Amino acid sequence: MNQESEVTLGRFEKYIYVWIALCGVAGLLLGRFFPEFIRDLNALNVDGISIPIAVLMFFLMYPTMAKVKLEELSHAVRNVGPTLITLIANWVIAPPLMVFLATLFLRNPDFRAGTILLGISPCTGMVLFWIAFARGNVTQGVIITAVNAVSTLLLYAPFASFYLGVGGVPVPFSLVALSVLLFVGLPLIVGQVSKRLLTSRKGEHWFTERFLPVMNTIATTALLGMLVLLFSSEGQMILEYPLVVALIAVPILLHFVLMLAGMHLVSWLFRFRYEDAAMAALIGSSTQFEVAIGTAMVVFGLGSGAALATVVGPLIEVPVMVTATKMLKRTQSYFLRKVNTKAAA
């Protein structure tokens, strides 16, 4: 097991669901009693990407990216199996599955459109943190998220037009490029440069045992801060339409569970290492909600049901991902036995 890739939430991890609930309540109260402040925060954005969220995402991603070993990138490029399976999951299986689930549970065509936009937008950012938290292969994840970014630029518009039956869906080029730069590229560059500088001056032991634990605590704070912001931004919607939000959440949750379980099972059947299996399962099941939200607002309008449906995705992402990573980590021994059996044979 590669301990370099392990990320923990420290003292918060034991009671993570309590912290999530408290942050949700805090966000709802903040949005309810200080709506003008939240509107001002939401106004701070570039091409649809919230600047406060981007700052929090940087500190969330930094410890993960600082632990990436660049010398392993060449091996990750040659590790074709997990990359191919993840791309097939993202572009061949995930979209029609979401169409089926959205049609099954949602009668409102706008709500269906929003959930479908989520289903065809493979994740390219925050999923790397969850891969590290699940002790997965972050280096391989960096390669696949880069491939996902390129494939999104090429495939998102035609897939959206096909599955929605709406012509002329725009390619969210600037949104995809900026999100990859801010959520993957910048933390990776800063993480690697700072790692080299700090290890040369303070030593690798100091960097690993003293500096990174502090950054992990900051990352935890950033994660909880993101929850507060997300719930404060959409708190009014949750309070006014709780049943609608719950209904939209059903196909999104089912889609995530089916994709996660399916990807993990396929990885086990192909005898992947646990690190690759966890990485493939998380990338194959998660979505890039920024692209979905931006596209829904452009195509259907700011106050549309489609835009509302896409916003449900990030509201449930953190608790769902925490649960998923905890469950994935419990399966490590099964994958180790598969690998050992194969090696013994």
Quick recap:
This protein has 345 residues and is mostly helical. 80% of the residues lie in helices and 1% in strands.
Descriptive account of the structure:
A two-stranded antiparallel ribbon has the order 1-2. It is built from 15 helices and two strands. The two termini are 21 Å apart. Helix 13 runs antiparallel to helix 14. The longest helix has 37 residues, at 204-240. A hairpin with a 2-residue loop joins strand 1 (45-46) and strand 2 (49-50). By secondary structure, it is an all-alpha fold.
Write the SSE topology.
Elements: H1 16-33, H2 35-43, E1 45-46, E2 49-50, H3 51-66, H4 73-78, H5 80-105, H6 109-119, H7 127-133, H8 138-164, H9 173-202, H10 204-240, H11 242-269, H12 274-285, H13 289-300, H14 305-329, H15 332-344
Antiparallel strand pairs: 1-2
Helix pairs in contact: 1-10, 3-9, 3-10, 5-6, 5-8, 5-11, 5-12, 6-11, 6-13, 6-14, 7-8, 7-12, 8-9, 8-12, 9-10, 10-14, 11-12, 11-14, 13-14
